[in-house]
Amino acid sequence: MLPFWVNANAGVNLSEKKLSDELTDYKDITTYNNFYELGTSKSDPSKNADWLKTEPWSIEVSGLVNKPGRISIEDILKISSEERIYRMRCVERWSMVIPWQGFELSKLLQKFDPKNEAKYVKFTTIFNPKNLLGQRKAVLNWPYTEGLRIDEAMHPLTFMATGIYGKSLLNQNGAPIRLVVPWKYGYKSIKSIQKITLTSTMPISSWTRASPNEYGFYSNVNPRVHHPRWRQNKERRIGEFRKRDTLMFNGYEAEVADLYKGMDLKKHH
Ligand SMILES: Nc1nc2c(c(=O)[nH]1)N[C@H]1C(S)=C(S)[C@@H](COP(=O)(O)O)O[C@H]1N2
Ligand SMILES: [Mo]
C-alpha cells in the first residue's frame, strides 16, 4: 500500500507510484457533501453554497496561548502550502480520496505560542443564522464545534486545508479554511473555522453533545468499534461499486497508533 500521505513537495510522482487508492473525482468531492449549515442532504451544500459569505475572514486564536490574536485569511494564505492526498472516511460509511492544499495545523498554532497548560484545542465554525439557513434548525447545537488533544493537533498529519485539486476551497467544502484529520471520522474535520481556543479541559463537540454514545471525543476510524446503529468494518468509496474494508485509523496506523498507546479504544471511542 502506498505510504498514504503523499507529499507533492517531497517529489513523490503519483503516476509512478501504483496507487491502490485512486483520487475521487472533483465533481463528487464538490457535490456530495456534509455541511449542515448549508442543509442536511448531500446535494444541499453545493446548491446553497452562496449562503456562506467568506469575505472578510479571519481566525481568532485565544485561550492558553502566550500571544492571543487574530490572523486574517490573507496572512493565513502566506503560510507556505503543500499538497496532501488523504483518505476521508465519513462515519456514515462512505469515503473519498482527496488531494488537499494547505499546511500543518502546528504551523498556525505555533504563531500564537501555546502555553504548557494547553491540553486541548477547540475549533468553532462561523455562526450566522441570518445567512446560513441550516443554523435555524436545531439539528445540532450551533455553532458547530470540534476538538482535538494538543498532541493530536500538533501531529504532522493534522492539516489545515485551503484548496482541493489545486483550486481554492469551494464553500461546500468549508471555504476559506477547514481542518483535515485523516485518521478520524469526517465530522472531526470541521469546516469554515473562525475561532481556535486552547484549553486545559476536554471540549465537547457539537456531535458529542447531540449523541455522546454515538460520537465520542476521539472518533478514531476503527473497524472493530462499531456505531450503536451500524457496523464500521466496511465502507463505500465514492465512485466504486464493491465495498472496501475499513482500515484501522483509516490506514494511518503506523503514523498515529502511538498517540493512543495503553488506551482502551472502545471506551475512548
Ligand atoms: N461546520 C461543519 N463542518 C463539517 C460538517 C458540518 O456539517 N459542518 N460535516 C462534517 C462531516 S460529517 C464530514 S463527513 C465532512 C465532509 O467534508 P466534505 O463535504 O468536504 O467531504 O465535513 C465535516 N465538517
Ligand atoms: Mo461525516
Plain-language structure description:
This protein has 269 residues and is α+β, with helices and mostly antiparallel strands. It has a single domain (8-260), classed as Oxidoreductase, molybdopterin-binding domain (Sulfite Oxidase, Chain A, domain 2), CATH 3.90.420.10. It is 13% helix and 25% strand. The chain contains seven helices and 13 strands. The strands form two sheets. Strands 1, 4, 5, 8, 9, 10, 12 and 13 form an eight-stranded mixed β-sheet that branches. The protein has a five-stranded mixed β-sheet with strand order 3-2-11-6-7. Bound molecules: ligand MTE and molybdenum atom (MO). Molybdenum atom (MO) binds next to loops.
How would you summarize this macromolecular structure in one to three sentences?
With 269 residues, this protein is an alpha+beta fold. The protein has helices at residues 26-31, 44-47, 73-76, 105-110, 150-154, 206-210, 253-256; strands at 6-7, 58-63, 69-72, 82-89, 94-104, 120-125, 145-149, 159-164, 167-168, 178-180, 193-199, 234-237, 244-245.
Which spans of ≥5 residues are poorly predicted at pLDDT below 50? 1-18
CATH superfamily heading: Oxidoreductase, molybdopterin-binding domain
What letter string, H or E per element, gives the SSE order? EHHEEHEEHEEHEEEEHEEH
Number of helices: 7
CATH class: Alpha Beta
Strand coverage percent: 15-25%
**Rough shape?**
globular
The number of E-state strands comes to 13
